[in-house]
Structure to design on (289 residues):
């Protein structure tokens, strides 16, 4: 399905260009209008129910029920070879856990097949005196069909190989495109603060690094595919998608964040002439970190 076809189901977006459609509203409601098996890739980071400025804190059971509902909607919309990448952190449960991985609480509520959990490791974060300083979040990589899914490993190989010329029986040991980036990704967080603010930082309080989303998009979708983010925030998924030759649909409930995302798409993704500012995984790493 082409990007513009979605308008006949979802109506007029709050923003559109040839690569992006953004809708203002509750993703649970909007997702009802997305046709079955129409989206090859969803990448998202939902509210963690921890009292951030963009969330109403729910009772734990209600929060889990809410997550299960929208994940089931994503499943319905995902195409047969499609993937769903879900970024989750931690929440505290009084008398039970200071920081329980949210993924533990939803493991049996998800209809997708879990390929693996990726550890996103970063250096910035809160300090600890009575516990180890937390320095990771997780990405759960789910697919619809565990025997048939998109995985472009060559497009995300890490060229930083220690001994690239090492040979065995006369043949190079390592793939010339680089090594498998493994399931632990060391990618800097988007930081704020006078002297340590990341270049890509927007006023959104929980922004994904574009490098992180780029690796996911390159690995799990093809050029011209549509990438969906139901919790769009500042539009990091849009930046990564457009710069890597994909298209994007985003849902966001907060209009201020939508305005940040629109500005970002216009400024960061396009040259004045309207052409796309190309980016690849490793350009984005060096330009933004
Ligand atoms: C963790 S943030 C996403 C940040 C995003 N990945 C980025 O890089 O900017 C979650 C976002 O979900 C939005 N949100 C919360 N509830 C929503 C809902 N029911 N429907 C749509 N968006 C929602 C919040 O306003 C917030 O911007």
């Amino acid at each position: 399905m082409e990007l513009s076809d979605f308008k006949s189901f979802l109506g007029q977006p709050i923003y559109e260009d040839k690569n992006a459609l953004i809708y203002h509203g509750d993703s649970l409601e909007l997702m009802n209008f997305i046709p079955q098996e129409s989206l090859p890739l969803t990448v998202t980071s939902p509210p963690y129910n921890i009292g951030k400025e963009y969330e109403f804190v729910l009772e734990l059971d209600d929060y889990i029920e809410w997550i299960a509902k929208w994940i089931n909607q994503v499943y319905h919309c995902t195409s047969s070879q499609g993937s769903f990448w879900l970024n989750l952190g931690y929440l505290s449960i009084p008398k039970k856990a200071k920081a329980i991985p949210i993924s533990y609480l939803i493991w049996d509520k998800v209809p997708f097949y879990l390929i693996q959990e990726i550890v996103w490791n970063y250096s910035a974060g809160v300090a600890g005196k009575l516990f180890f300083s937390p320095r990771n979040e997780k990405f759960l990589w789910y697919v619809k069909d565990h025997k048939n899914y998109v995985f472009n490993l060559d497009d995300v190989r890490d060229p930083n190989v220690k001994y690239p010329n090492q040979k065995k029986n006369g043949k190079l040991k390592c793939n010339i495109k680089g090594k498998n980036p493994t399931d632990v990704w060391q990618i800097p967080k988007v930081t704020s603060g006078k002297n340590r603010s990341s270049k890509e930082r927007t006023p959104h309080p929980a922004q994904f690094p574009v490098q992180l989303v780029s690796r996911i998009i390159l690995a799990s979708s093809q050029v011209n595919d549509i990438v969906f983010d139901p919790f769009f925030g500042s539009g990091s998924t849009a930046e990564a998608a457009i710069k890597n030759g994909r298209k994007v649909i985003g849902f966001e409930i907060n209009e201020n964040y939508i305005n940040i995302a629109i500005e970002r798409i216009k400024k960061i993704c396009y040259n004045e002439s309207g052409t796309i500012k190309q980016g690849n995984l490793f350009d984005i790493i060096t330009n933004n970190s």
Summary: Helices lie at 7-10, 27-30, 60-77, 102-106, 210-220, 236-243, 255-269, 281-288.
